[in-house]
């Protein structure tokens, strides 16, 4: 996707290192830094700078909507996925008779709000088998009391990707009162989305989208807006924030707009607008077509080394494996400027469009050398 020249031009921070940790933190392109500088120039204008600030928000909304396959009016922003899910909890107002289905492959932000609710709903856990979520197992958890099914399109934990059509159809058939919430943080910008018909889409901005911290994209199709309107206080999401009746009632905008409760984190949205347009210019289908063979190359290499994956790869940008000597393996990789994620015996690699065959081969080569030294000692 990138020539060596364009790679060094757009991602100079990658010079001399192999970076395979985008699922934790991305390396933004130069244009993202330029956008941050543009925010600073506007900020120095004082109040006049807000003209640029709010123009950047609207430009980012347009780019985000195209990436999600939604209308501009169906997209808004808050500060992070944790905030988004806590706001979602205010919209649903669940009680002890309601049920929420979550998975053991989901990130804590999508699970913990239901555990911390004043009146917690019944939480039902969809458990992965051999690293994958099977719709047959989900079927046993769904009923007329199910109010929400929360999943990640791609799991942060092991890279498993939900088979969307089968999942969606199962929920709609067996849980007619349920809304579907999808965390697309580990997908947006890397895989072609196939879930615009979810009731709510949530994505952080500092991973595959090549942005920075402090932003979160919320997508809610208009058909679900009335059911997914937050009950939070604030001002930006109100129709009457400064009207004469503001001390008598608070009239909230519906759907996605209700999640933008206060002043936007402008700098994050300047950055996101630039990074999404960079990705859009390349094209997510082109990124997937380029990067998927690199993931397959890594998978084949790990198999040759006798290292089993935590789940069968099915089209995400992530591979993960556990190893009894993971700490030693991780330290050896770091010494060679090969950067991966390591946590609790698990090593995870993430392959984006700025990676190359050389990155994969270098990663596998360091592993091979360490394992061979161990075998021969």
CATH architecture of the largest domain: 3-Layer(aba) Sandwich
Structural class: alpha/beta
Radius of gyration, taken over Cα atoms and rounded to an integer in Å:
22 Å
What is the count of β-strands? 12
The end-to-end distance, rounded to whole angstroms, is 41 Å
What is the average per-residue confidence, as pLDDT, rounded to a whole number?
96
Number of helices: 11
Helix content: 25-40%
For the biggest β-sheet, the strand order reads: 2-8-7-6-5-3-4
CATH structural class of the largest domain: Alpha Beta
Q: Enumerate the spans where pLDDT stays under 50 for 5 or more consecutive residues.
A: none
Quickly count the domains.
2
Largest sheet: 7 strands, mixed
Question: Secondary structure elements and their pairing?
Answer:
Elements: H1 4-10, E1 18-19, H2 30-43, H3 50-68, E2 75-78, H4 81-92, E3 99-103, H5 112-115, E4 122-126, H6 135-139, E5 146-152, H7 164-174, E6 179-183, E7 200-204, E8 216-219, H8 266-282, H9 284-304, E9 318-322, H10 326-335, E10 338-339, E11 341-343, E12 346-350, H11 357-376
Parallel strand pairs: 1-10, 3-4, 3-5, 5-6, 6-7
Antiparallel strand pairs: 2-8, 7-8, 9-12, 11-12
Helix pairs in contact: 2-8, 3-8, 9-11
Please describe what this structure looks like:
- This protein has 377 residues and is of the alpha/beta class.
- It has 2 domains: 111 residues, Aspartate Aminotransferase, domain 1 (Alpha-Beta Complex), CATH 3.90.1150; 251 residues, Type I PLP-dependent aspartate aminotransferase-like (Major domain) (Aspartate Aminotransferase, domain 2, 3-Layer(aba) Sandwich).
- The strands form 3 sheets. Strands 2-8-7-6-5-3-4 form a 7-stranded mixed sheet, sandwiched between helices. Strands 9-12-11 form a 3-stranded antiparallel sheet, with helices on one face.
- Helix 3 packs across helix 8.
């Amino acid at each position: 996707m990138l020539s060596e020249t364009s790679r060094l031009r757009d991602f100079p921070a990658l010079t001399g290192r192999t970076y395979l940790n985008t699922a934790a933190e991305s390396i933004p392109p130069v244009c993202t830094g330029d956008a941050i500088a543009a925010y600073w120039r506007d900020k120095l204008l004082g109040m006049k700078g807000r003209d640029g600030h709010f123009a950047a928000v609207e430009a980012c909304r347009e780019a985000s909507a195209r990436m999600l396959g939604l209308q501009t009016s169906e997209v808004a922003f808050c500060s992070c996925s944790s905030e988004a899910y806590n706001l979602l909890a205010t919209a649903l107002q669940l009680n002890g008779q309601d049920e929420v289905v979550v998975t053991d492959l989901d990130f804590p932000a999508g699970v913990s709000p239901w555990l911390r609710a004043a009146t917690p709903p019944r939480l039902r856990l969809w458990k992965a088998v051999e690293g994958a979520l099977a719709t047959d197992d989900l079927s046993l958890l769904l009923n007329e009391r199910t109010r929400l099914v929360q999943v990640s399109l791609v799991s942060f934990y092991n890279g498993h990707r939900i088979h969307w059509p089968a999942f969606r159809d199962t929920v709609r058939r067996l849980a007619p009162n349920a809304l579907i919430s999808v965390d697309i943080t580990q997908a947006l910008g890397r895989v072609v989305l196939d879930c615009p018909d979810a009731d709510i889409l949530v994505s952080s901005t500092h991973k595959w989208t090549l942005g920075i911290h402090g932003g979160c994209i919320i997508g809610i199709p208009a058909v679900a807006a009335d059911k997914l309107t937050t009950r939070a206080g604030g001002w930006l999401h109100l129709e009457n924030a400064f009207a004469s009746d503001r001390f008598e009632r608070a009239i909230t905008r519906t759907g996605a707009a209700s999640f933008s409760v206060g002043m936007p984190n402008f700098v994050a949205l300047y950055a996101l607008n630039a990074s999404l347009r960079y990705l859009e210019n390349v094209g997510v289908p082109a990124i997937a077509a380029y990067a998927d063979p690199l993931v397959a190359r890594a998978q084949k290499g790990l198999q040759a080394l006798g290292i089993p994956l935590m789940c069968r790869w099915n089209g995400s940008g992530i591979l993960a494996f556990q190893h009894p000597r993971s700490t030693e393996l991780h330290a050896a990789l770091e010494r060679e400027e090969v950067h991966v994620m390591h946590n609790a015996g698990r090593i995870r690699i993430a392959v984006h469009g700025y990676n190359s065959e050389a990155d994969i081969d270098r990663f596998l080569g360091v592993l091979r050398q360490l394992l061979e030294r161990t075998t021969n000692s």
